[in-house]
Amino acid sequence: MQKVIPIAPEGGARRADALSGGVRLATLPPLSLYVHVPWCVRKCPYCDFNSHELKGDLPEQDYLAALRADLEQALPLIWGRQVHTVFVGGGTPSLLSAAAVDEMLAMFRACLNLWPDAEITMEANPGTVEAARFLDYARSGVNRVSLGIQSFDDAALKALGRIHDSAQARRAIESAQEAFARVNLDLMFALPGQTQQACLADLQTAMAFGTEHLSLYNLTLEPNTVFAKYPPPALPDEDAAAAMQDSVAELAEAGGWQRYEVSAYARQGGRSRHNLNYWEFGDYLGIGPGAHGKLSFPDRILRQSRLRQPQSWMAAAHKRDGGHIAEERNVSPQELPFEFMLNALRLKQGVSASSFEDRTGLSLASILPVVNRAVAKGLLEDDPARIRTTPLGWRFLNDLQAMFLD
Predict the structure, then answer these.
(1) Alpha helix (H) residue ranges in 268-395
(2) pLDDT digits 0-9 by tens, 209-227
(3) 366 shares a domain with 261
(4) Alpha carbons 379 and 400: distance in angstroms, whole number
């Protein structure tokens, strides 16, 4: 069980403050750390993350020095709080050398109140060079790796702009399993020209490795990506994609992976603690170029984002004057119901009704009219103790979440 930090006397109010426009939180949620490594060998045409193709050598020491400056400037915001999980994402974090990862994790242990059993996840590309570093990453303290496999079909990988092939993917999984007890595989479906048979073949191949976690995503054409501007040919239509999603869920669950979130499947004990903290509206400090964060205080909830361009972020972080922060604002009470539901409704088991008050500082009564309408439409379960999406609600999740914008 994760601890919480009491910050108000027992029985203290947890409510929206109508006069000040603030909130009152009786406890702070668990805290995670997100670290963004922005570089990749080549940007994939479907990717809308803050990633930048590497030109020349990776500026590891400049990056690590800026990361330390970023972290040290953020420490007053989280002073005394325990960090439960760390997630190093990108980009392609596995481009970092083993020595750089070792230095990074040593920095976190020195600067943060990091739990001894903290889940420390690192995203990795299934290339030969990256896989050769897995054992060293594990020795440094990484205890969970997430591999961006996407497909085991070479034609599909080429259509997605991936730089690895199926053979490299298989070898990388085997190397990861030798180094880490906890391995996640990312797979996509509804790929250009993909049939349902090919989709399930990909999943069967992934399942055969027996990793504890699978992340199964429908390929979507995100704004400001190459695919959005130049859609790939022969994409499955919405009905075909929905049929693939249903078949994928059925096959994975029959094989022993429980679907606990829209795109996440885990064996017993294999759920991602870091991602669960997001979905349960926990706190996270985001450092590195383009990183976002959410931090709770007794009277407010703060959102931050860093400068996106790596060089700009590094230069600004070194000045230590806060210029590396691109945006910083308090979330208004009017926004909190939607922000909470945007995450919580993705969980298959939902969340306890009391967690809405605990994490937002708002009364549950403030959203009951919307909850009741969603129940009447068959989108939410009729359960006073839990906020949980029905199968129909999952099918129309965007519409359900949007109801809480009001």
Answers:
(1) 273-279, 310-319, 336-344, 353-360, 368-376, 391-395
(2) 999 999 999 999 999 999 9
(3) no
(4) 7
